[in-house]
């Protein structure tokens, strides 16, 4: 071990180390920017570079399913808080909630009666059994679906008690009232699930492989996916291709495209169920968050009939609220910093097609809900003040 080494050998080793470090950095940087130019070699380099962060997470033992660390701003609070019980009189509706249960250490879906706050039913499907043997898309961040990690994203409840469930970028399944599998898909889905005309389903999905040439980059090719009631894919329509076909190339190749592997971020599909003055049955209202854009699309003709960017900012939902009117839930992020900040309040913006005007819905209620010293900003998947 203490044998003398020629100086030129040491110099050569030093040069090789420097070259190796530069090459390693190039591989990691390429992968971190969403590119895949070096294939498996780049992936291995990126995983090696991630070892310290992974080790830190394991040593700290944090629960990734908990939304907040440290002091809880909900200390001492539980259940429902009703500010005006009189408004609940005669309301016979229900709320379907997907949430992480801290006691059970897993996600559950619950049907709540609005008037009384009573839990009518709880679904606790065994995701590991439901999706057993189904391959996962490469964008999913776990090797397997685990019950302690699987989130029930945007569950859809059917009239017979069945439920549609998925996580982000995972296969999707329909389970019965008891949580048993009815069917499951091998395709990848995310965000919203809605029931369309004639019992069809419209779900946010991904085209694998992409139908759009995104150069040498791994870029989300978001898709409007139509399924039959038994889970068969009837159509998978690229959102990027819809925009390109209709002359909106600037939205696809906007300023964030070069560095963003998710340039559009489809997060809601709202099917039109009946004919109206400004739309037809079968039309779709589509929300693409990263462009602060909502548009009306007719699949039968591949035409965008109406499109608007803003005033909603990073919106997360669009709904039909009447003949000729839609409402858009705006996360209302800071338009300059592109992140939430103190003083930011969510907006629900109604658009009237007949008058081409907009107005705020529940403005006073949203502002009152976040007033006072407890106001905080949540900057997770759907940034907003809570």
CATH topology of the domain at 93-186: Thrombin, subunit H
Q: Show unreliable segments.
A: 372-386
Count of helix runs? 7
Shape: globular
How far do the termini sit from each other?
62 Å
Molecular structure report:
Mean pLDDT is 83; it is low at 372-386. It is built from seven helices and 21 strands. It is globular and about 90 Å long. The relative contact order is 0.06. It has 386 residues and is of the alpha+beta class. The protein is 18% helix and 29% strand. It has a four-stranded antiparallel sheet with strand order 4-5-6-7, with no helix packed on it. The chain starts with 6 loop residues before the first helix and ends with a strand. The protein has a domain at 93-186: Thrombin, subunit H (Beta Barrel).
């Amino acid at each position: 071990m203490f044998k003398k080494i020629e100086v030129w050998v040491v110099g050569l080793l030093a040069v090789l180390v420097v070259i190796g470090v530069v090459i390693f950095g190039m591989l990691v940087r390429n992968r971190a920017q969403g590119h895949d130019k070096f294939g498996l070699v780049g992936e291995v380099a990126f995983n090696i570079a991630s070892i310290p962060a992974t080790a830190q997470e394991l040593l700290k033992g944090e629960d990734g399913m908990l939304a907040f660390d440290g002091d809880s701003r909900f200390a001492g609070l539980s259940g429902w808080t009703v500010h005006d019980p009189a408004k609940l009189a005669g309301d016979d509706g229900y709320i379907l909630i997907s949430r992480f249960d801290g006691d059970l250490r897993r996600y559950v879906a619950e049907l709540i009666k609005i008037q009384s706050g009573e839990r009518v039913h709880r679904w606790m499907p065994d995701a590991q059994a439901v999706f057993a043997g189904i391959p996962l898309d490469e964008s999913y961040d776990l090797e397997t679906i685990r019950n302690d990690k699987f989130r029930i994203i945007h569950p859809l409840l059917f009239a017979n008690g069945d439920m549609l469930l998925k996580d982000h970028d995972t296969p999707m399944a329909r389970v019965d009232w008891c949580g048993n599998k009815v069917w499951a898909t091998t395709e990848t889905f995310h965000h919203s699930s809605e029931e369309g005309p004639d019992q069809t389903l419209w779900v946010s999905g991904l085209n694998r492989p992409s139908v759009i040439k995104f150069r040498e980059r791994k870029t989300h090719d978001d898709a409007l996916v139509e399924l039959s009631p038994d889970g068969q894919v009837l159509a998978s329509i690229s959102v990027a291709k819809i925009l390109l076909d209709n002359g909106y190339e600037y939205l696809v190749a906007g300023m964030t495209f070069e560095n963003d592997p998710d340039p559009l971020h489809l997060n809601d599909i709202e099917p039109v169920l009946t004919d109206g003055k400004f739309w037809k049955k079968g039309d779709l209202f589509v929300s693409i968050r990263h462009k602060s854009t909502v548009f009306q699309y007719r699949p039968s003709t591949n035409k965008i009939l109406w499109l608007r960017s803003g005033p909603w900012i990073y919106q997360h939902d669009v709904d039909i609220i009447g003949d000729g009117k839609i409402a858009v839930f705006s996360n209302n992020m800071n338009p300059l910093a592109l992140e939430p900040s103190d003083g930011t309040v969510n907006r629900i913006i109604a658009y009237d097609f007949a008058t081409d005007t907009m107005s705020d819905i529940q403005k006073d209620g949203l502002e009152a809900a976040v007033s006072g010293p407890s106001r905080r900003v949540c900057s997770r998947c759907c940034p907003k003040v809570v």
